[in-house]
Design a protein that fits this description.
Helix content of chain A: under 10%
Structural class of chain B: mainly beta
Strand content of chain A: over 45%
Structural class of chain A: mainly beta
Radius of gyration of chain A: 13 Å
Largest sheet of chain A: 6 strands, mixed
Oligomer: heterodimer
Strand content of chain B: over 45%
Radius of gyration of chain B: 13 Å
Largest interface: A-B, 21 and 22 residues
């Protein structure tokens, strides 16, 4: 059974810092990996999707990388802003399935 | 594109009543829809998978008579929480999958249910 772990569980940083959020998974036979953002009481917003043939994806200040062999993905947030405060969820799609396994998330607070 | 809506966004009800939550894919036809439940500070837990016109497949431990799922069309799925109790209070999120997508799910904004 796939297990997804996100470290750290919570993070509080001053504005402007560069951040790294980690996601690890136990079964490396995955297809896609996706990072989501969830604001309190809200649904999921897709940030980055790394498809099976890719190793990283970038969108603005966000960069996500994937190393299947080691079972790890990282989400890099450059020059963090208070508006980045949210919970970041990592979701791993197993091979041949579009039903992901989610991590518990990293709760991020960026203070001015 | 690939927008999923949920209605209502929040609901408060008395214990013993039934509550229906709608999930709609607005600009695409969803082959499959999913229902998740999320407890505070926890991850999403898949409750069931539904395909249009067929019975939903429930995950282990999810009571199908408690959580009725109907997927009447390619753009609408409903989750009915029957005889709700306070322990059913949670955040319910639906998602939809289309074969024309990037092999991911598209998530709705969620419904907050509070049972008094």
């Amino acid at each position: 059974k796939q297990e997804v772990t996100q470290i750290p569980a919570a993070l509080s940083v001053p504005e402007g810092e560069n951040l790294v959020l980690n996601c690890s998974f136990t079964d490396s036979a995955i297809y896609n990996l996706q990072w989501f953002r969830q604001d309190p009481g809200k649904g999921l917003t897709s940030l980055l999707l790394i498809q099976s043939s890719q190793r990283e994806q970038t969108s603005g200040r966000l960069n996500a990388s994937l190393d299947k062999s080691s079972g790890r993905s990282t989400l890099y947030i450059a020059a963090s802003q208070p508006g980045d405060s949210a919970t970041y969820l990592c979701a791993v799609y197993p091979g041949g399935s579009y039903i992901p396994t989610f991590g518990r998330g990293t709760s991020l607070i960026v203070h001015p | 594109g690939a927008v999923v809506s949920q209605h209502p966004s929040w609901v408060i009800c008395k214990s013993g009543t039934s509550v229906k939550i709608e999930c709609r894919s607005l600009d695409f036809q969803a082959t499959t829809m999913f229902w998740y439940r999320q407890f505070p500070k926890q991850s999403l837990m898949l409750m069931a998978t539904s395909n249009e016109g067929s019975k939903a497949t429930y995950e282990q431990g999810v009571e199908k008579d408690k959580f009725l799922i109907n997927h009447a069309s390619l753009t609408l799925s409903t989750l009915t929480v029957t005889s709700a109790h306070p322990e059913d209070s949670s955040f319910y999120i639906c998602s939809a999958y289309t074969e024309r997508g990037k092999e991911t799910q598209y998530f709705g904004p969620g419904t907050r249910l509070l049972v008094l």
